Amino acid sequence: METALIAVAGTLLGVIATHWFESRAAERTAALARDEQLRQERIAAYSAFAGAVVDYRRSQNDRWFRAVEDPDSDRAEESRYASYHQRTATRQALFRVQLVCGDAETRRLAEQAFETTNCMHEATGEEDRAHRSREAKDTLDRFIATAAPGVR
């Protein structure tokens, strides 16, 4: 009888220990899956944002050149509306970055990249436009350099 009780107690302890270890392993697996999913979402958000900023920068340069060439032309008007459309797409990409990014500095640089690009069309001359375009590119490069370690 005593041997049977020891066997039952040992079996119960084994079941409890196995359950505990399996639940810990399942929790670790779930945490790893969540982390990987978030990493993939960040990669998608960061790359979409970078692409949108590049397109917006090109659009802003085009808008500036068309306005300088002939401010009242249809091409200038089309270019202005195209830049509005691209600004909307870039802002949407920025929102996605803000949602998935856990680092305040990376978010700040994303916002700065957007704002720097947004002000390009206000350039007062070719030298100012070129400076603003370089500044927008440099700000985007800083965002990418800061964001990259978080997704590797």
Give the SSE map.
Blueprint: H1 2-69, H2 74-100, H3 104-118, H4 126-147
Textual characterization of the structure:
With 152 residues, the chain is an all-alpha fold. It has one domain (43-151). The chain has 4 helices and no strands. The protein has helices at 2-69, 74-100, 104-118, 126-147. Helix 2 (74-100) packs antiparallel against helix 3 (104-118). It is rod-shaped.
Largest sheet properties: none
**Series of secondary-structure elements, N-terminal to C-terminal:** HHHH
Question: Beta-sheet strand percentage?
Answer: under 5%
Mean pLDDT: 93
Span from first to last CA? 60 Å
What is the CA-based Rg, rounded? 27 Å
DSSP summary: helix tally: 4
Number of strands: 0
Question: Percentage of helical residues?
Answer: over 70%
Low-confidence stretches: none
Q: Features of this protein?
A:
152 residues; mainly alpha; 4 helices
In short:
The protein is mainly α and 152 residues long. It has four helices and no strands.
